[in-house]
Every structure is written in C-alpha cells, then in structure tokens.
Amino acid sequence: MASFLSSIALPVALCAVALVLMLGLINMMRGGSPNRSQTLMRWRVLLQFVAIVITMLAIWALGR
Description:
Elements: H1 2-29, H2 34-63
C-alpha cells in the first residue's frame, strides 16, 4: 500500500494540483471569467487537501 501511495497516487495528485494551478494562471493572464478563476481556485484547494492526505497516509504506511 505504501508503494502505491508514494509511487502512483501522490505524483498523480501533485500533477492534478499543478494542472489546475496552471489553468487558473492562464485564465487570469488572458483576462478570463472571474467565476472560472474562483472555481479553479476551489478545485486547487481541494486537490491540495487530497495530496496532503495521500502524503500523510504514505508516511504512516511507510512507518508501519
């Protein structure tokens, strides 16, 4: 389980956070909709929370 979390789940979660962050930055630079920026920011925060939970689970599983 620790191997799956640290080698697959965590990189996927981090890439998802980076992708949403880039989409938000592109939207802001192009002067896009403020509502879309808010939605992307909410998704980024949620994905960051998921990435932190996966990180903590991986650390816990590696310590067992």
